[in-house]
Amino acid sequence: MKKVLIKSTEREFNLICKDIAPDKSISHRCAIFSLLSDEVSHIKNFLLGEDTLNSLAITAQLGATVKRDGAEVEITPPNKLTEPDDVLDCGNAGTGMRLYAGLLAGIDGSFVLNGDRYLRNRPMNRVTKPLREVGAKIDGRESGNLAPLSIRGGELKSFRYDSPIASAQVKSALILAGLRGEGVSYYRESELSRDHTERMLRGMGANIKSVDGWIEIEPLKEPLKPLNIEVPADPSSGFFFAVASAITPNSKVIIKNVTLNPTRIGAYRELEKMGAKIEYIQKDNLYEPIGDIEVSYNGKLKAIRVEDNISWLIDELPALSIAMAVADGVSQITNAKELRVKESDRISTVVSGLNSCGVETIEVEDGYSVIGGEIKSAVINSHGDHRIAMSFAIAGVINGMEIEDIECIDTSFPNFFDILSEITEVKK
User: Fold this and answer.
1) What digits encode the pLDDT tens for the residues 27-39?
2) Distance between CA atoms of 171 and 231, rounded to whole angstroms?
3) Does the model's pTM come out above 0.85?
4) Residue 303 in contact with residue 328, Cβ under 8 Å?
């Protein structure tokens, strides 16, 4: 098990992040959605992380011809998706497993989706249950709740599904199933979750629209147009350095060429409420609004309560918790039970990590409170969760930190420590 030692920074910094990891969510979708076309898709700046490369490999296993030159990818879809002769390995990616489940449920053939030891313990009922209700044949451990998942794809019914949770992964799986349904399908969620799937599929020509609070999905009558996209930088990855700037006196970071999709910058809005100075500079808007985010230290942060649009910032809450730990007052996160079913139980791992750093917390079922004070140096086990590892690495800029089990960072942000080393000393 690899570990890293982060030294506290002894200086202010002015960092321009040109090499933030490409967006993971969009990269996954590029690999998967290319299979809905009958023409060649061209993708630039594809994330070369383990998870997204696994999604790309699965695309090839299903019959596509994949050519890759560094981060430039060309995907030629097959005339018909082929039944693979081996297990489809999603690695650590819940996005990959849940979206492929939705896609393959409507494709004739037998498919097995598997992943690493962490993914095999993440709940899949939230996807497998509604897919079964529309005719999908899916099985797995705990009656289809845990991977490996065995899928016998075939004809699907149209549906009207009112989701009890706001989840972009669940929504995307059901939209992909709806594209293969026998008629028009409808999906609704309690609040708008990240909407990359709707935006990208509409850009490819799918008939997906909002009607009275429902997402209306017309089944495909013909293949979609191919993708021609440059994947923007990931605001979730950039947010680690936004927090570092907000907690380090006289520091500033500019995060270049990120998506400014409103459902993806919720954490930056919360950091603004805490007192950080943040500017958004839009430059383009094709599949996604794209531009730069500038974050500057603006004095000691203040406590906040986070309770709305949780699905918009679910991945950034661990890093936001580091800002809360040094803010004045008591910060609260509620309505965030979804944190318990991410790569780790992030409520438990954030709370225990902060406690190890001498920060007082109060844990509840759907969130936690953080009593602001001082973050002290500690040894933190990531529990195989890349966002826990990176969040506490950022905490290390204050008084130092040792992080155990850091291999997971390669799944989403392979050059994270290269950028962090521009701020402070990093020893592996």
Assistant:
1) 999 999 999 999 9
2) 21
3) no
4) yes
Q: Cβ distance 282 to 289 under 8 Å?
A: yes
Rounded-to-integer distance, Cα 209 and Cα 215, Å: 6
| Domains along the sequence of the chain with CATH | 3-22+232-427 (3.65.10.10), 24-230 (3.65.10.10)
Q: Model confidence over 133-167: pLDDT tens digits?
A: 999 999 999 999 999 999 999 989 999 999 988 89
- Write out the two tokens for 109: 């053939």
Contact present, 187 and 172 (Cβ < 8 Å): no
C-alpha 101/C-alpha 140 separation (Å) is 12
**Identity at 52, one-letter amino acid code:** T
Which sequence positions are flagged as catalytic? 315
Q: Are 65 and 76 in contact (CB under 8 A)?
A: yes
How far is it, in rounded angstroms, from Cα 48 to Cα 327? 35
Whether 326 contacts 247, CB under 8 Å? yes
The answer to whether residues 61 and 132 touch, using CB atoms and an 8 Å cutoff, is: no
Q: Are the beta carbons of 121 and 346 closer than 8 angstroms?
A: no
Token pair 């996005």: residue: 95
Contact 287, 51 (CB under 8 A): no
Q: Mean of the pLDDT values across residues 370-390?
A: 96
Q: Which two tokens stand for residue 321?
A: 């918790």
